[in-house]
Specification:
This protein has 1 helix and 4 strands. By secondary structure, it is mainly beta. It has a domain of about 50 residues. It has a 4-stranded antiparallel sheet, with no helix packed on it. A hairpin with a 6-residue loop joins strand 2 and strand 3.
Length: about 100
């Protein structure tokens, strides 16, 4: 039995998933996770208008950050702050006798 015609994913998207890890505002949750990989954490809630809000965090990797989805679409991206550089220990100078 063939599946019924229409959207193939949970977000009712009929467009192809982004290729090569492309992530942009408006992409679906599924597209972003396919592009970046498994997230570190996911928090679900509703906004004042009753829309589903998902806050998905990646704490490692080249695209680490906090990604917010509203009604299934990427609505904001906040990058993780850059790690502070570790101070180098100064090498003592050799004394010439």
């Amino acid at each position: 039995m063939a599946p019924p015609p229409g959207p193939a994913d949970a977000n009712a998207s009929t467009t192809a998933a982004p290729m090569g890890g492309t992530v942009a505002l408006g992409h679906t949750e599924c597209d972003v996770v396919r592009g970046i990989g498994v997230p570190s954490s996911v928090n679900l809630s509703n906004d004042a208008a009753g829309r589903r809000v998902a806050v998905v965090t990646w704490s490692t990797g080249p695209r680490a950050g906090i990604y917010t989805f509203t009604a299934g679409r990427l609505s904001s991206i906040e990058g993780n702050p850059d790690p502070q550089p570790v101070p180098r220990a100064a090498k003592p100078k050799k004394k010439h006798a």
